[in-house]
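Section 5: illustrative case.
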């Protein structure tokens, strides 16, 4: 009678060690199944044990991130290590934006409390250890200007400096409100290409162009704002409040941009 030989499945820890040896720090349930983990119950139990040992964290159900020893205290590696894989898993277009993009471009006066991502549909925040990922939706995603940026584990899509500037105005509340927006724009202004700003103005709301131009002038970056002023000359301008949801008060629209400064701006120096 022929003897049957039992094929041992590698431990999940060994599977993860093999992934890490290839520079991979994320895995999905399907990838684990291809590695021999067919039983969902057994797989989930193994993941649970590794979570208890702080070797794995799960920012989204079915998507898991390895936690290298040097990041055990934080509970997860930086979001830049896995954001591209996470968004691919979710099947969503994305780019790193707002304060996170500004920091990548050198405007890191204040590090954002959350890793900020812009995507094409409403998305709940994600958590991995101490890492928080905050999502913001834009409907006109096709007009976004982005570029690939190298990370420790591959690449991720990041808003260009000019796209970041417009998004800071569009999502001012998420960017820490207007004083912080002005602070970041002052640092980011050196990276802004005036021609690229004008090109993006074609796809932005006129009021956002007015607000961005006003703030660039406010932080003494008039060379960058000049093409925006030129572009606005062909538009029908109406006075817009800097903070749309706040009453006008006694403030009057400025002559250049027709922006009503209905909030006090005090950028950090």
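Designed sequence:
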């Amino acid at each position: 009678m022929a003897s049957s030989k039992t094929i041992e499945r590698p431990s999940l820890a060994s599977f993860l060690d093999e992934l890490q040896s290839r520079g991979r720090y994320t895995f999905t349930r399907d990838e684990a199944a291809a590695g021999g983990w067919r039983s969902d119950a057994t797989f989930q139990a193994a993941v649970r044990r590794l979570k208890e040992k702080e070797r794995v964290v799960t920012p989204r159900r079915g998507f898991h991130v390895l936690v290298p020893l040097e990041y055990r205290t934080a509970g997860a590696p930086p979001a830049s290590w896995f954001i591209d894989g996470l968004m691919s898993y979710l099947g969503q277009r994305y780019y790193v934006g707002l304060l996170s993009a500004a920091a990548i471009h050198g405007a890191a006066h204040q590090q954002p409390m959350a890793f900020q991502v812009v995507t094409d549909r409403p998305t709940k925040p994600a958590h991995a250890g101490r890492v928080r990922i905050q999502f913001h939706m834009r409907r006109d995603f096709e007009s976004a200007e982005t570029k690939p940026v190298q990370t420790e584990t591959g690449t991720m899509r990041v808003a260009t400096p000019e796209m970041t500037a417009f998004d800071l105005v569009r999502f001012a509340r998420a960017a820490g409100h207007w004083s912080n927006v002005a602070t970041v724009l002052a640092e980011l202004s050196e990276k802004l290409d005036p021609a690229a700003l004008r090109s993006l103005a074609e796809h932005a709301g006129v009021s956002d162009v007015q607000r961005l131009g006003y703030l660039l002038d406010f932080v003494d970056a008039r060379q960058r704002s000049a093409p925006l002023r030129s572009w606005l000359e062909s538009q029908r301008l109406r006075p817009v409040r800097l903070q749309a949801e706040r009453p006008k008060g006694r403030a009057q629209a400025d002559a250049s941009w027709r922006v009503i400064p209905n909030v006090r701006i005090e950028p950090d120096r």
